[in-house]
DNA sequence: CTTCTCACA
DNA sequence: TGTGAGCA
């Protein structure tokens, strides 16, 4: 009786391509039970089990090369080490995906917030935040690709996170990124109510005017600003049309005197 | 339907 | 680490 099956039947059975099966054979991990007189590869139960084993190890990220050595001569200890290694690779991959998940969630949330509060001033509460010093530039000089390449040591995921600009009295613009921990070179942003405005900027000089308007608005509302204006660039929002750079201006407000809350 | 080889990501 | 095209 012919209990063996052809390559296409095995491929269909195990949900792999015929190509892949011949590739496994070339790499010496799956040999047919025998080859028929017409040169057709024929596979039996042994091969079905073996292929299931191979596919399982592949799912764990084990290279085909290792699978070969694994099935020929590997100690129990080496098997265990292989599994531990693949486990830790999967864990780092999981961390990578969780990072992407957080990023996407943040983009969606921020763009929603932008749509809702575009061209409006709001007061919003901010918890204490920590900004880690990234680089300083003269307020007049523009940020260029060269200055990034020269000055910026390393910033993972450039432009995937918020970039904070704070200008001091000496006209020096300092760029910060958010960080979780306190430490050297880390600026603490106190918690409190911040006046906030979000704007879409198309021209470079447009930002200065927006900052001026920000102060004018604050004065008109009798807000007392208790610190520098913080400009937050959210470049990742430019993923969405209309294009331009998304900025949010924030400034810490002194607590309002009783009875003078704006309506 | 299978085989093999080659080029291509 | 595979895939797709073309051939016999």
From TrEMBL:
Question: What would you give as a GO molecular function for this chain, any one?
Answer: DNA-binding transcription factor activity
Per the database record, which ranges form the HTH merR-type domain? 4-73
What keywords are annotated for this sequence in UniProt?
Answer: DNA-binding, Repressor, Transcription, Transcription regulation
Q: What is this protein called?
A: MerR family transcriptional regulator
Question: Which SUPFAM superfamilies does the entry mention?
Answer: Putative DNA-binding domain
InterPro entries the UniProt entry points to: DNA-bd_dom_put_sf (IPR009061), MerR-type_HTH_dom (IPR000551), MerR_fam (IPR047057)
**Organism field:** Paenibacillus lutimineralis
Q: Does the keyword DNA-binding apply?
A: yes
User: rRNA-binding: present as a keyword of the record?
Assistant: no
